[in-house]
Known about the structure:
Residues 1-21 are annotated as: Disordered. Belongs to the bacterial ribosomal protein bL25 family. CTC subfamily. The protein folds into two domains: 6-99, CATH 2.40.240.10; 106-198, CATH 2.170.120.20. A hairpin with a 2-residue loop joins strand 4 and strand 5. The chain has helices at 17-25, 47-57, 119-122, 187-198; strands at residues 6-11, 28-35, 40-46, 63-69, 72-85, 92-99, 106-115, 126-129, 133-138, 147-150, 159-161, 172-173, 180-185. The chain is α+β, with helices and mostly antiparallel strands. It has four helices and 13 strands. The protein is 18% helix and 43% strand. The strands form three sheets. It has a six-stranded mixed beta barrel with strand order 1-3-2-6-5-4. It is elongated, with a radius of gyration of 22 Å.
Amino acid sequence: xxxxxxxxxxxxxxxxxxxxxxxxxxxxxxxxxxxxxxxxxxxxxxxxxxxxxxxxxxxxxxxxxxxxxxxxxxxxxxxxxxxxxxxxxxxxxxxxxxxxxxxxxxxxxxxxxxxxxxxxxxxxxxxxxxxxxxxxxxxxxxxxxxxxxxxxxxxxxxxxxxxxxxxxxxxxxxxxxxxxxxxxxxxxxxxxxxxxxxx
Length: 199
C-alpha cells in the first residue's frame, strides 16, 4: 500500500513580484491552490518540505494538501499541477496545486518506463522512444505511478502504439489519433534515406 503523503501550506495575502521575491529569499515558495469548484487560494509553502513531497508524488499522484488559514486547517486531496523552476538557480519559483474530487475522473500525464531488451536491438536495430508520457483519464485513486512497457518482443521495424497498449485497470489512454510510443528502427535504412535526401 502506498504511503499517503501530506503537505502543509499557508494561505497568503501578499501578492506581486516584490513579496514573492522576499518569500523566495526566505526559502519559501509562493503558489496557488485551485479546483473545479471555483476555489482559488494563494498559498506559500516551505521549500524543503515541498521538495520532499514532490520527490514522492511527482505530478501524477494524489496527496493530502493541508491549507492553514489563520490557524484553521482544511485538507484537500490534490495534485502538484505545475512547477515553475528558476532558469538557472536551484530554486522553485512558483507551484500550482490542483484539488481533485475522489469521485470524478481526471486527465493526467503519466510517465512511461521502458523495460526489457528488444529483439530488434539485439540484431542491430535502434530503440526509439517517441513519447515519455501518456495522457490518461481515470479516478484520482487509480492514477498509476508510471506506465511500464515491455519491449522484449519488438523486432526490427516494429513499434508499440497507444491504441494497442494494455493499460492498468480503470485507466484509459486519451488520444485523438493513434500514435507510436516506442519502436525499433533500422539505422542503416535511416542512413540511406538521409543520404538520398542530401543528393
